[in-house]
Specification:
three-stranded antiparallel sheet, 12 strands, 3 helices, single chain, Pnp Oxidase, Chain A, 14% helix
Length: 168
């Protein structure tokens, strides 16, 4: 039997970016969750995957509406990451966002985002493995560092990963 806490510690040793996945309920209300389980799947067609908890408020909305957005958070958005990491509807209060031309909830201040339509979802234990087809994407200014997560802490890119003035 695998100890849950030890399992989390081992997985937490893998540095990853921090994303927030958002969707809009049929009544236009925002739902979302913080996800480090985000990955590219395919270039043609452009597919990504996310892994929402089966018990989240967001997963049923994504299944019903067939659309969602994945935001790669900026290093200054730790508070947003922590807000979306908890359960409850009040987590979205005070979060700056707007509706895109495609009807998705877009968080202000992200480094980049991808707007997706539900391609497929698969069982994955206590989570779902959701594959989304990228419909639209946006990349902000390279000077805005993404938010990283490792060993239970969030921070910005180390200097060794920043663009040098000669390549910027």
């Amino acid at each position: 039997m695998i100890d849950t806490q030890h399992y989390k510690q081992v997985l937490g040793a893998f540095p990853t970016g921090v994303t927030v996945v958002t969707a809009l309920n049929e009544d236009g209300s925002l739902v979302g969750f913080t996800a480090s389980a985000f990955s590219a799947v395919s270039m043609a067609p452009p597919l990504i995957l996310i892994c929402p908890s089966l018990g989240s408020d967001s997963y049923p909305v994504i299944k019903r509406t067939g659309r969602f957005a994945v935001h790669i958070l900026g290093h200054d958005q730790q508070a947003v990451a922590y807000r979306f990491a908890v359960k409850g509807r009040d987590k979205v209060e005070g979060v700056a966002w707007h509706r895109s031309e495609h009807g998705n909830a877009i968080l202000d201040g992200a480094t980049a985002y991808l707007e997706c339509r539900l391609w497929e979802d698969y069982p994955g234990g206590d989570h779902a493995i959701v594959v989304g087809e990228v419909q639209t994407l946006w990349l902000g200014d390279d000077r805005l560092d993404p938010l990283l997560y490792c060993r239970g802490k969030m921070d910005k890119l180390p200097d060794t990963f920043r663009l040098s003035p000669a390549t910027a």
